[in-house]
Amino acid sequence: MHLMPITIFLALSEQLEDERIKFKSFISEESTHNIHIDVITGKDTSDAVSKTRSQDEYNKYIRDCDIFVALFFTKAGKYTVEEFYVAYQNFKEFGRPKIFTYFKRADNQDKDNNDDGKSLIKFRNKLEDLGHHWTAYGNTEELHLKFKKELDSYRNERKSTKVFNEVKKPKSTVLEDNSLFITNHPVKYAHFFGRKGIVERLFNAWKSLPIQNVAIYGEKQIGTTSLLFYLKDVVDNPNDSRFREEQKINWLPNPEYYCFIYVDFQDVECQNQKRLLEYILQKMKLEDADTLDLSLSEDNPLLGFRRIVAEHLVRPTLILMDKIDILLEYHSEEFSNNFWEGLRSIVTTILEMRCLGFVLASHKLPTELDNLSSGSSSFISIFSHTIKLKAFSEQEARELIYSSPEPFSDDDVEFILKQSERKPHLLQKLCQRCLEAKDNNWQSEAIQEIEQMKKIG
């Protein structure tokens, strides 16, 4: 059985140079024929390699490592502290790396009034505020003994997971109904990966009134529709078994109180004012909805919509408007500046509770959307958040790749990362292609397919 290597990032100051050398030697002895352990040291060391790398490069290594070890003696080095926070933030967001922090005992350390001593005490107090447990040690042998217990525990944990290429579930079970990787449609539920930082930012904007309006944009197939689906699904069905076990879904304290309405402007029913507004009313959780007449007039449907919403909307409601750039390009007469100004008026002046908000998703910047950004329109001014969707981070891309029911070789993983440029739809395509591969020629064939996909856009 081939096992993936364990990567340890060691952060410490140059005053612990002896510990660095001995720690790397100790780890080398811990490597076995089927578990290889690499150690990377941080910026505060005197390691010659560290002088040729930027702190940003080190931060990337930290985010990708499996275990982060920080050693402190009489001071908390600037870079070592920064490296700790990078690891801590990544752990909060992605559940890795494992973090172990050690302080070497020193006489009268806590009574030292110089700047180094103060920085150390301040950092240790911060760890206590974060609820992060740290460990004291007296000498190198004690450090190695204590860390070996943690390392052995981690190795045993890793041996039981699919990261070590042990597939507990047969491929036929996973792919019984459809492909694990979605290549031609937006993804939903368990198939949705990444974007945790963006999702957290969005839900933070909606946890209290007034509801914040958000514009999301990015190149074609970057995942805007999939993101909107995920936002709606975690509100409508937070306990759905189709989510992955480790997938975060509890973004809101009371999701059942919210109403998220998805609008696809490629749908012909949403390309007419009256039908669009009636559809939205039907999906809203309105007071006395069973007794309301939700039909609107042909002449001025927005007027009726405004009256009903003003009188009966009390729950926080987000209207997720997808592909709005397509609507404005082909149906600008139906959805003129007057329509958007009417919506702005409802949100900003009619609703006292300010419980209605919009999410616009498009391939263009909001300021580039016709009818919304013209000199006579102020609709776009109500959007306090503008978010650009980009390619996945390497961590997010690897998370998707490692979800395969059959582990890929290291060579295939690196090929997928490079050729996909970490763009979600290309990652999905290449992962599915690799999963279906019957020989070693799949990479050359996949390159041709990817080039064709890029030309089509």
Helix run count: 16
Residue runs with pLDDT of under 50 for 5 or more positions: 43-53, 161-178
Domain count, please report it: 3
Radius of gyration: 27 Å
Strand content: 5-15%
Biggest sheet overview:
5 strands, parallel
Assign a percent range to the helix content. Answer: 40-55%
> Which CATH-level-2 architecture of the largest domain?
3-Layer(aba) Sandwich
Strand and helix order = EHEHEHEHEHHHEHEHHEHHEEHHHH
What is the fourth-level CATH superfamily of the largest domain? P-loop containing nucleotide triphosphate hydrolases
CATH topology category name of the largest domain = Rossmann fold
- Backbone shape: globular
Characterization of this structure:
Residues 43-53 and 161-178 have low confidence and may be disordered. The chain is α/β, with parallel strands linked by helices. The protein has 16 helices and ten strands. It folds into three domains: 6-164, Rossmann fold, CATH 3.40.50.10140; 171-180 and 392-456, no CATH class; 195-388, P-loop containing nucleotide triphosphate hydrolases (Rossmann fold, 3-Layer(aba) Sandwich). Strand 1 (6-11), helix 1 and strand 2 form a beta-alpha-beta unit. The chain is 43% helix and 13% strand.
SSE topology sketch:
Elements: E1 6-11, H1 17-30, E2 37-41, H2 55-64, E3 67-72, H3 78-94, E4 98-104, H4 115-130, E5 134-137, H5 140-159, H6 171-174, H7 196-206, E6 213-217, H8 224-236, E7 259-264, H9 273-283, H10 301-312, E8 317-322, H11 324-330, H12 337-350, E9 356-362, E10 383-388, H13 394-401, H14 410-420, H15 424-436, H16 442-456
Parallel strand pairs: 1-2, 1-3, 3-4, 4-5, 6-9, 6-10, 7-8, 8-9
Helix pairs in contact: 2-3, 9-10, 10-12, 14-15, 15-16
